[in-house]
Amino acid sequence: MKIVVLKFGGTSVGSIDKIKNVANIIHYYLKKKYKVIVVSSAMSGVTNDLVNKSRKISNNFCDSEYDILVSSGEQVACSLIAGRLLHKGLKSRTWLGWQIPIITHGPHKQSRIIQINKKKIMDYLKEGGIPIITGFQGVNKDSRVTTLGRGGSDASAIMLAKFFNAEKCVIYTDVQGVYTTDPNKLSNAKKIKEISYEEMLEMASLGAKVMQPISIQDARLNKVDIEVKSSFVRKTGTLITKRANIINNKIITGISSTQNDSKVSLIGVKDKPGVAASIFRPLSKNLINVDMVVQNISPNGRETDLTFTIKSDDLNKTKKIIKENKSINFRKLIFKKGVSKISIIGVGMITTPGVTFRMFQALAENRINIQVISTSEIKISVLIDKRNVKKALTALHKEFKLDY
Amino acid sequence: MKIVVLKFGGTSVGSIDKIKNVANIIHYYLKKKYKVIVVSSAMSGVTNDLVNKSRKISNNFCDSEYDILVSSGEQVACSLIAGRLLHKGLKSRTWLGWQIPIITHGPHKQSRIIQINKKKIMDYLKEGGIPIITGFQGVNKDSRVTTLGRGGSDASAIMLAKFFNAEKCVIYTDVQGVYTTDPNKLSNAKKIKEISYEEMLEMASLGAKVMQPISIQDARLNKVDIEVKSSFVRKTGTLITKRANIINNKIITGISSTQNDSKVSLIGVKDKPGVAASIFRPLSKNLINVDMVVQNISPNGRETDLTFTIKSDDLNKTKKIIKENKSINFRKLIFKKGVSKISIIGVGMITTPGVTFRMFQALAENRINIQVISTSEIKISVLIDKRNVKKALTALHKEFKLDY
Q: Which of A373, A368, A359, A369 has the alpha carbon at shortest distance from A307?
């Protein structure tokens, strides 16, 4: 049995016309002799509206009731899709999480799927039915409705693809795929045909718009190939798969950039155990997201310089915390707004020497100063002045032959 | 265990503030040492919006998917009520139909509750919990979500009151109760303290605004006392109960009137079996609702006069059907727009002679001509010119001592 899981995001089912379009997409796969399992999110805007209602009821709305509340959105979208397929003379019905059941574990609002009972859906597929399954939700051992957290419909689709051994899992969304870099920043950006889970994870700043990192991780762990594509344009999307499946002679797969960061440098910090923790603990407590962290080797063995980046929105809060916290010792504090992190990402760099050099040279040739450097196995990130972002993207996109 | 079932209609949960108010009402019963079972409708407007969506998807939207679609509305309202009670430090949760379960029988969109599993809810009540149960829905033997049809939340409340042997079932709505006559037509109208199921059924034209006749019938068959009251005003409402429970020295309980009817008279119809059917069959087929039907005794044994009333909106359609249908034989056809039906209703008339005479005399004294008369065990209806409605209501309201 050739099974495909099709997942439609909120914008793909955002109106009656779009739902009719979704029914046509499903029909297309049927004609190609696929058995189709559909997963749908709530119509765009609905979940936010429900969440706002809950906030007006209580500033501390109960998690289990939150799950009952927001899970209603997918129920509506699914019934409209099934209703449309039936209108077209096809056999279809909505399957709610508890009807299958899709068993979850863990706390409300952030449960995880641990088991999917295949029997009923498999029988239904054999009868020629098209199951429309509510994404983002399941039911726990106590028969309580649970949700999987934001982006949870992707997780539903991935787990269904795994349990039903689907040929692929297609995530329909409002973008055409994953790009070599943000097309809004560089018109030369190209759609990537194939990308590995690891690269996709590293490209989070781009990828977050397409899929939540946790869903990519789900797909990686469960070895589910994902095609990300648009439900509005009939074009091939981007396949997210494991490294070994990728035929790609490019060293670099994509380039990501951040928009509006600030750099914080603490000069002359005592170089002893626990110092970094004493700095980052109060920031973490205040929900300040620290990104790049670089610590230089202490030249005299007693003092060191520590640099990290944060979102510029958090700058004032960060200043206050560092200045008020007496346990943090340093000689000098430097803040700098208006920096951007540029990262080149690609599994190809593991086996290709000189990638770092080529990156630095390309930037140098364009007179772009590198402020901080940080590297991982498949990513090199540099911090530059945000005014140079476009110049840097253009140079690197060309250097690593992503332009064509 | 002193149990009360509180049912809140769409307008009672129509906004965040109204839901907060509902939580206060529930709290009030708890303070009076009641164990409270809550049933809620969807927030006002929600169900209509969902139904409109289904119509845009298909002009023949599948019934089982319709049930999935519209049942989402109660789910939202219930979670918000439970969320608010939890916010107030009370123990509460939403119970969806399938979680209890509430078992239904019959076709989708018009299922009937046949069984309610008491165990889980009873345990929950004993633990001090306040169950918030989705009205209007249940689950059938095949684990499919079903709905009970319009007004179905009342049916849910009544069946819960029956199965849990509740002291009473309170239906919260946007009117303060049932009135002796429509307060919009007669400012002298008084709220009725107690009314029998049968009277309530006969007062359909008034009662429909308060409760669907089918729900009143449910309450009657299951011997459930119902109090209808407003969720916005803290006043006693109207108790709907069985005749024997009513302490009432009034002969007439209420007076109803219709707004805009038309009278159709067929003069000189052949007086033989099947004639009435040949007239009403085509009307019924065209969904024309025929109300009063009066057939005079044929003076010569061969011909008779037949009169009936319809809504004035249906007049043109009715004319066309009668004129075009060759199987209907008559000598003369008379149509008259602008008539109203005035009915006096009361179980007291069974044991009190002379009620008909008093009604006719009161109208005659006010020079109101009676065009047609029809009677049942607890109701007398007359057809009058619609210009005389207010005069008639005033006269009858006074005659039967309903003014105080």
A: A373
CATH number for the domain spanning B72: value is 3.40.1160.10
Instruction: Give a yes or no: residue B138 inside a domain.
Output: yes
* Interface residue B133 vs chain A (CB under 8 A): no
Q: Where does the pLDDT of residue B150 fall: very low under 50, low under 70, confident under 90, or very high at 90 and above?
A: low
CB pairs under 8 A between A and B: 109
User: What size, in residues, is chain A?
Assistant: 404
Please tell me the total count of domains within chain B.
1
**Average pLDDT over every residue of B363-372:** 93
| Rounded mean pLDDT, A254-279 | 86
Residue B194 lies in a domain: no
Whether residue A83 and residue B75 make contact (CB cut-off 8 A), yes or no, is no
pLDDT of amino acid A285: 87
Mutate to test the interface with A, among B68, B90, B136 (most CBs of A within 10 A): B68
Are the CB atoms for B54 and B116 separated by under 8 Å? no
Domain containing A125: what range? 3-174
Q: Quick check: helix, strand or coil at residue A312?
A: helix
Structure tokens at B53: 């969506």
Which chain A residues are within 8 Å of B145, Cβ to Cβ? 96
CA distances in angstroms from B94 to A15, A65, B85, B91, B134, listed in the order given: 29, 7, 11, 11, 7
Q: A110 CB near a chain B CB, below 8 Å?
A: no
Dump pLDDT digits (tens) for A368-395: 999 989 888 899 999 999 999 999 999 9
| Residue B395: φ, ψ to 5° | -65, -45
Distances (CA, A) of B199 to B175, B202, B216: 18, 5, 10
User: Cβ of A185 under 8 Å from any chain B Cβ?
Assistant: no
In a domain, A66, yes or no: yes
A235-259 pLDDT tens trace: 999 999 998 777 777 889 999 998 8
> What whole-number distance in Å separates Cα of residue A235 and Cα of residue B65?
31
ipTM of the complex: 0.85
Rounded to two decimals, the pTM is 0.87
The Cα B390–Cα B373 span in angstroms is 19
Question: Which amino acid makes up residue A60?
Answer: N
A292 within some domain: no
Max avg pLDDT among A299-313, A345-359, B108-122, B182-196: B108-122
For residue A58, give the nearest of B60, B72, B83 by CB distance.
B83
